[in-house]
Specification:
The protein is α+β, with helices and mostly antiparallel strands and 282 residues long. 52% of the residues lie in helices and 16% in strands. The protein is built from 13 helices and eight strands. The relative contact order is 0.08. This is TrmB family transcriptional regulator.
Length: 282
């Protein structure tokens, strides 16, 4: 009995309302006087509670005199409560102010990051864009497979030493993939083109990520992902020709956009493919 009363209170009914509903379900239709007598409660409180329950659709008033109420069947009651709660939740979701802008949440710790990522993958309805290294892909294979089984479109880009993207996208500032991964392995997810996570895992740093639903971040990550796919397919079809024209990893193009200080440190002339020439001393 106490457990039933506890759950009714959790559903928003007061103590006296919960007791009235259980009493009528147990003893059948009755008036306020009978119920108050059985419960040892004030008649005025019982009458007021019965009227509230009738307005909420949780009790039904019977025809005739004297005034009597009956309890709904359990399935009728739960259906009534469910409809009321769903309507309230929908209204709150639609009407609650969302604030001036989408926040950026910073999160650290391997378990915390992977837990929230698995949760959002489980909530996905239409699409998940995945840009990860093979180590992280293996950890998340199960929740992503479950999402696909629900009909969610999952689009992958896996990075790693045996994957073409590693060469295409490893800009010339990296000496090799080992140097690239010492600071951690980058990963990003975009769920339903709104929820985003961008972070690093492994290497010399603790796992960390930034989480947001800001539309600008979603747009940037989706554009980045699309560019990766375009570059990958270009490299697969025209790899030798592209390397001959633009250098390894499109180095000749990227040189134009690397900071001058960094270029000078590496001894590269920004105007050509040749090492920078030092002026001879007179």
């Amino acid at each position: 009995m106490e457990q039933l009363l506890h759950h009714l209170r959790n559903l928003g009914f007061t103590e006296i309302e919960s007791k009235i509903m259980v009493d009528l379900a147990e003893h059948g239709p009755a008036g306020g006087y009978e119920v108050a007598k059985r419960l040892g409660a004030s008649r005025s409180n019982v009458y007021a509670a019965m009227q509230r329950l009738e307005r909420q659709g949780a009790l039904e008033r019977m025809s005739g005199e004297p005034l009597r109420y009956r309890a709904l069947k359990p399935e009728e009651l739960t259906r009534t409560i469910s409809m009321r709660v769903e309507a309230s939740l929908a209204f709150v979701e639609k009407s609650l102010p969302r604030g001036a802008g989408a926040p950026f949440l910073s999160m650290e710790g391997d378990k915390a990051v992977l837990d929230i990522l698995s949760r959002e993958i489980g909530r996905a309805k239409r699409e998940i864009i995945v840009d990860v290294w093979r180590e992280e892909a293996e950890l998340l294979r199960e929740p992503l497979a479950e999402a696909e089984s629900r009909g969610v479109r999952v689009v992958w880009a896996c990075d790693g030493p045996d994957h073409g993207l590693a060469r295409t996208l490893a800009w010339s500032g990296w000496d090799d993939l080992g140097a690239r991964s010492r600071g951690g392995r980058k990963f990003s997810f975009v769920v339903d083109r709104s929820w985003c996570m961008l972070g690093m895992r492994g290497g010399e740093q603790e796992t960390g990520a930034v989480i947001t639903e800001h539309p600008v971040m979603a747009e940037l990550l989706l554009h980045h992902f699309t560019q990766q796919m375009v570059l990958f397919h270009l490299e697969q079809d025209m790899g030798e020709e592209l390397e001959e024209r633009y250098g390894p990893n499109f180095e000749n193009i990227q040189r134009e956009y690397i900071s001058s200080g960094f270029v000078e440190d590496r001894g590269i002339d920004q105007r050509s493919d040749k090492p920078a020439e030092t002026e001879s001393e007179e």
